[in-house]
């Protein structure tokens, strides 16, 4: 067979020649309202224009001395400009390094210095961080500011001026499919962030598999709205899938609130969107509100909502199905897995809208092609795939990283029977039919009386209560049992009483798993990737005074 | 990223663990009726059983001395046994060589000797050829006869006895994804047949891409009936797709007549089937017959009919749509391209059931991911992609062969700008939007007065006539114009008159393309891969007496 490498160059060709007219719609910041809040303006482009401008960007970067393997960083929300960087930087042989805009500037500085980025493409809203970068990031030779208005402060260049005059037809080089194409750092709740270098091969295999109907089901007839940020694990591959198969794209930029997302889903006839649980809870709240107000959104085009990042509550999947006729599919993965490792569909023969179907769909699902999972205990011994026994979840596959950037093979990897696996840090069960059920992050498990309690499973059960909008369960030190679970609950409507929640959990989780206390809160801290910050919550409640009634196991 | 190779081993794992219960239904020969015709019997198995028995087969082959890279040939129709060979032979590192059962025994002997096959797995019906193989094919050390009854003549072994006692859990080796996995010889209308060696990488990339909804749209919820033989370009990849994604499979064995296929489509609730034009014309005739008899088949589960091998008549696509509510998608490719190179879907925004939609769908469509096409003239110069100018169609991609087995880089390949392309032997146009329109095989073009006439386009137009069941147009020598087109027509119902057909073609093809004569025939010869044998027809009519009225260009 011909030795044709799998590279992102194919995206350029397909966008330019097969799907040039497919729309790319971006919400940009058009100005500010009286309250000083950004006001959206719609920018319309196409896949063909994005690919042509990607060629211009590649020409400008080459003229600026960017060579194969060099890192070009982005600090940007989702937009057509970010898409141009996705297509152009990797296809010219450089590495696009997507910085997480939600990180504090000190961490960004650390990451930029670790990655030795040579160019930074950034949205204007992040210009306040410029002095910190200029003072602390000597590797960056050039700052290029996205934005159609051409503004660029001292020491920076406007993106439009940077690419102006370059031909759209860049002389794309032949690349090794195993060379680096993208770089993303994990948010690193412990220790310093770690970089994951995606190769052309891994990205393109992920896109091939991700477009299948068992995964994100993306084709030319689709319009995709990745609410998940393009700086977060490649927007879960949705952008590459869209460019490969010719789907339209909708980018909401900074406007990711429930009402704006709902409006764009309706207005742009979006067929597929993807985002983390917290974003989808906000979307559900807006759909509920509109429905109750007698002005429901028309989302009849929306075939699939991809959701992940943390375990997806069954109640959320059910609510979207029964209240709004929408299909949510859970996917599991991590920055290290590109990220799609499993997708969760009811097995054939099981009605997806039956109780059994929802039970399946609330688990993390079955592996993608060429991906394998396994379980070990803390001593590295095999754990049975019986759907019952918890173990540390291992994963391997052609789009799973085998090392960290510049750090090599760290303690996050284990070698078993001659093969390297990534230890995900998740605790899971694995059914004989290959269904992964993540019980918890290893560090979030509650260790009570020598046994493990899955905080995720309790949270899932709590969120099935009609008056629970969100719930987080954390371990709190306990004199007798070492740790016991504490539930923090954001109420939906009238606040539920602890005894109601206790009764609700009876039969849904093991009796001794029922939290010893339930605290109503107005909000909970959310981290840089949209997940609840369990470590912070645990720290905040570590001296929680247990109710007098005595702990849990009764 | 981890260096995880793409090998067929993944099919074994997924069939065993993720999709073990998915059904595999085979029509076997249960006996003969009074007329001596074979009578079908239904054999039911599963993907899990097939994968387990593939492990047994691998064990038996290993014990028989088959090593990595050795060729294990099959001479068999579609069945669960053939599936076991697909899964087991390649995953153990050997090469499964699928012999075309329709070839004369002399050609099979030549091919076996060229491939140096060590084992031959064959259906009992081909035992009459055994003496010829035994006398002329010294490389074959072992003949293994498929069949549940355990019969095996002198010098052969029964398949069931061969694999009996072997464990289902073969110790599958780690393989290089670029090593050979399957071998298929082209039918070779000129010269000796040429072998195409598929690698694990090419087969698995083809399966990943082939399952997408822009191609064969195969997932766990599907049941696939490959009417296309498993010896013909890997059954177009449908079998690998099904094993990868967990679709059920239906094999009709020798029973590929319209009524049996239609009955199995209905009975097994098939969602996707695939076959060549001649087979689909027979299926259409049966659906028409049943409908007219007031006993239509219930094919409400059938979402997609894949068709290819030769240009698909627009009239066939329309008839299936309008008369039976069925969607036919044309795909183009060859043995050398695994075979999917293009798939033909109406571009987004065009109603597939509109005149414009059918026009698009009657062309060969747009390239699969990572596949490229181009056009050159006879001197190797660029031909514009204007949708008008004909040129020789070139193709390249990761599942396009770059050489022939044991023959290397023959004259079928051209190097342009440092890259190797396969010259397909097809004459085509290429639209600016990337749509391939095959006009003819280069050798089937009619050269009239220094210009090219596309026989395929005339055939397509003829078959839109209500009283034409099939049409073949060939070049016949002509004193003045060098060659002129002659049409051979199989009538549907009342035979049309030449002047009716001439009138019908007015406006549908260029005036000077209209054949100079129309001959009604009862049948036309069909070759080993189900295509009309144009060379034979041309030879038969090369002395055709033109009607007195004088030739064509008037």
Side by side, the strands of the main sheet of chain A go 2-1-11-10-12-13-14-15-16
- Report, as a whole number of angstroms, the end-to-end distance of chain A: 67 Å
Most extensive interface, chain pair and sizes: A-B, 54 and 52 residues
CATH topology of the domain at 9-219 and 232-246 in chain A: Rossmann fold
Keywords (chains A, B): Ligase
InterPro entries (chains A, B): AMP-bd_C, AMP-bd_C_sf, AMP-binding_CS, AMP-dep_synth/lig_dom, ANL_N_sf, ATP-dep_AMP-bd_enzyme
GO molecular function (chains A, B): ligase activity
Protein name (chains A, B): 3-methylmercaptopropionyl-CoA ligase
3D architecture notes:
2 copies of one chain form a homodimer. The first copy, chain A, contains 15 helices and 26 strands. The first copy, chain A, has 554 residues and is an alpha/beta fold. Among the domains of chain A are: 9-219 and 232-246, Rossmann fold (3-Layer(aba) Sandwich), CATH 3.40.50; 445-540, 2-Layer Sandwich (GMP Synthetase, Chain A, domain 3). In chain A, the strands form 5 sheets. The first copy, chain A, has a 9-stranded mixed sheet with strand order 2-1-11-10-12-13-14-15-16, sandwiched between helices. Chain A has a 7-stranded mixed sheet with strand order 7-6-5-3-4-8-9, sandwiched between helices. In chain A, strands 17, 18, 19, 20 and 21 form a 5-stranded antiparallel sheet that branches. In chain A, helix 1 crosses helix 8 (238-245). Mean pLDDT of chain A is 94; it is low at 550-554. The interface between A and B is large, with 54 and 52 residues.
């Amino acid at each position: 067979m011909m030795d044709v490498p799998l590279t992102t160059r194919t995206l350029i060709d397909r966008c330019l020649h097969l799907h040039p007219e497919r729309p790319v719609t971006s919400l940009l910041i058009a100005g500010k309202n009286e309250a000083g809040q950004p006001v959206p303006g719609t920018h319309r482009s196409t896949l063909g224009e994005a690919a042509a401008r990607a060629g211009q960007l590649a020409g400008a970067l080459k003229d600026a001395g960017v060579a194969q393997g060099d890192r070009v960083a982005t600090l940007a929300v989702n937009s057509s400009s970010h898409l141009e960087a996705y297509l152009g930087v990797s296809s010219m042989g450089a590495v696009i390094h997507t910085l997480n805009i939600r990180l504090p500037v000190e961490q960004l500085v650390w990451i930029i210095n670790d990655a030795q980025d040579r160019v930074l493409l950034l949205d204007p809203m992040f210009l306040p961080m410029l002095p910190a970068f200029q003072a602390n990031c000597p590797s960056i030779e050039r700052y290029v500011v996205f934005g159609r208005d051409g503004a660029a402060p001292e020491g920076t260049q406007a993106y439009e001026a940077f690419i102006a005059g370059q031909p759209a037809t860049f002389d794309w080089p032949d690349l090794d499919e195993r060379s680096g194409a993208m770089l993303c750092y994990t948010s690193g709740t412990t220790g310093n962030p770690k970089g994951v270098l995606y190769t052309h091969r891994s990205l393109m295999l992920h896109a091939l598999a991700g477009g299948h109907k068992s995964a994100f089901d993306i084709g030319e007839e689709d319009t995709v709205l990745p609410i998940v940020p393009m700086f977060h694990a490649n927007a879960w591959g949705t952008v590459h899938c869209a460019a490969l198969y010719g789907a339209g794209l909708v980018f909401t930029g900074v406007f990711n609130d429930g009402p704006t997302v709902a409006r764009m889903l309706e207005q742009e006839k979006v067929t597929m969107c993807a985002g983390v649980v917290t974003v989808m809870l906000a979307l559900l709240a807006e759909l509920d509100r509109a429905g109750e107000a007698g002005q429901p959104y028309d989302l009849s085009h929306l075939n699939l909502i991809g959701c992940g990042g943390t375990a997806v509550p069954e109640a959320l999947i059910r609510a979207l199905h029964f209240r709004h006729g929408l299909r949510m599919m859970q996917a599991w993965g991590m920055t290290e897995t590109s990220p799609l490792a499993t997708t969760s569909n009811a097995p054939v023969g099981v009605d997806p809208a039956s109780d059994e179907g929802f039970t399946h769909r609330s688990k993390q699902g079955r592996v993608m092609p060429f991906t394998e999972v396994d379980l070990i205990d803390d001593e590295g011994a095999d754990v049975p795939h019986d759907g019952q026994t918890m173990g540390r979840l291992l994963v391997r596959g052609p789009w799973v990283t085998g090392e960290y950037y510049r750090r090599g093979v760290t303690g996050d990897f284990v070698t078993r029977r001659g093969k390297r696996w990534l230890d995900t840090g998740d605790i899971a069960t694995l059914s004989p039919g290959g269904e992964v059920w993540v019980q918890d992050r290893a560090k979030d498990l509650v260790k009570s009386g020598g046994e493990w309690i899955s905080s995720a499973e309790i949270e899932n059960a709590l969120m099935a209560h009609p008056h629970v909008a969100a719930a987080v369960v954390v371990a709190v030190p306990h004199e007798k049992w070492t740790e016991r679970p504490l539930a923090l609950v954001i109420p939906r409507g009238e606040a539920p009483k602890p005894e109601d929640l206790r009764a609700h959990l009876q039969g849904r989780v093991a009796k001794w798993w029922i939290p010893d206390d339930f605290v109503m809160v107005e909000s909970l801290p959310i981290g840089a990737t949209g997940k609840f910050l369990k470590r912070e919550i645990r720290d905040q409640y570590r001296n929680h005074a247990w109710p007098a009634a005595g702990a849990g196991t009764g």
